[in-house]
Amino acid sequence: MKKVILIKYGELTTKKGNRNLFINTLYQNIKRKLKNYEVNITKEISRMYIEFNENDLELILSKLKNIFGLHTFHVANKVSTNEQDIKNTIINMLKQEKIKTFKVKTKRSDKNFNISSVDFSKMIGSFILNNFKKLKVDVHNPELLLNIEIRQYYSYIYTNSYRGLGGYPVGTLGRGLVMLSGGIDSPVAFYLAAKRGIKLDAVYFESMPYTSLEARNKVINLCKILTNYTDNINLYIIPFTEIQEAIYKYTDNTYAITIMRRMMYRIMEKLVKKMNYQTIINGESIGQVASQTLTSLLVVNEVTNFPIIRPLACLDKLEIINISKKIGTYETSILPYEDCCTIFVPKHPVINPKLTKSKIMEEKFDYEKMINQAIEKLIIVKVNSEKIKNELL
């Protein structure tokens, strides 16, 4: 008898001809996350198995809980596929349990095994009742569900179940660039986009000296938390001060947020083209603030033809906060360090901006030159769970 972690794929099994791509990517993602542990990972078309050092079990389980693409996983006893070995293993397992009711569930993948799943469950149930006189069968609400998976050479027996994050393995569905502020919403948008298999990096618009170094570090720390769910993150820091000052100097104050968002999207489009990303992602939620009305989004979107994904579009604030608490970003997001989107907010921002009026205001300053200069001064912060490294583009 040997313990292994048995992984079930869930949504990945719907991919048919592309299933190998998803499974191979998941395999590589798990391998990277467990690189510091002594493990042996075996992948099959419907299951994945991890052999491990039992001293590392809890740490390995904590890593697996944060990997997209896993439906459920189980710590299972691996035994030879024969009736006696299975029975002996079950005896040893139940000796460790303090229960009164149980149920047996068998899944027979090896059809050459000469007992059907239903009959094998009945046989094992009778075997348990004969050896543990105080136990009773409860098929509706058992204290213990004994799962048996019968395969050609080995069978897997387990009584536990850990729920994975689901979704697709990061890296299976292209690359995206997230507009990451220090607030609650954008880290949640990052998480939800990563859950759909997109490999993500992030852009932070910085307005020094109006914003502080603490605000930058706050965003870096958010990236570090998010690396729990993905690979390393490149954080692109854009110096936005000159552009923002020009907006407030030359445009109607009520249009400042609209023009600012249009400038940000112009920068985002240049970055995704320059670095071969396929989409722009942000934390906008319909109606949450003045710049996120449908009219405002239409005016802002006009500056780019790139697809924009808004994972939070139809979520309310409480739903977003609940996710941020679940993924561990909330406490960092509420730290009192303002970003460039909050320091110059007008008292009465326009809710239904006009495209023609926005364009007329933008003609008052050479924003294209400022955008190119900002990109030239861009700083890259490479963030992973172990270290942070600063680079110039």
Please explain how this structure is put together:
38% of the residues lie in helices and 22% in strands. It has 393 residues and is an alpha/beta fold. It folds into 2 domains: 2-163, VC0802-like; 175-392, HUPs (Rossmann fold), CATH 3.40.50.620. The strands form 2 sheets. Strands 1, 2, 3, 4, 5, 6, 7, 8 and 9 form a 9-stranded mixed sheet that branches. It has a 7-stranded mixed sheet with strand order 14-13-10-11-12-15-16, sandwiched between helices. Helix 5 (185-195) crosses helix 10. The longest helix has 19 residues, at 256-274. The mean pLDDT is 92.
CATH fold-level label of the largest domain:
Rossmann fold
Question: What's the level 1 CATH class of the largest domain?
Answer: Alpha Beta
Strand content: 15-25%
Count of helices? 14
Categorize the overall geometry. elongated
Number of beta-strand segments: 16
Largest sheet report? 9 strands, mixed
CATH architecture descriptor text of the largest domain? 3-Layer(aba) Sandwich
Mean pLDDT: 92
Name the helix and strand elements from N-terminus to C-terminus, one letter apiece: EHEEHEHEHEEEEEHEHEHHEHEHHHHHEE
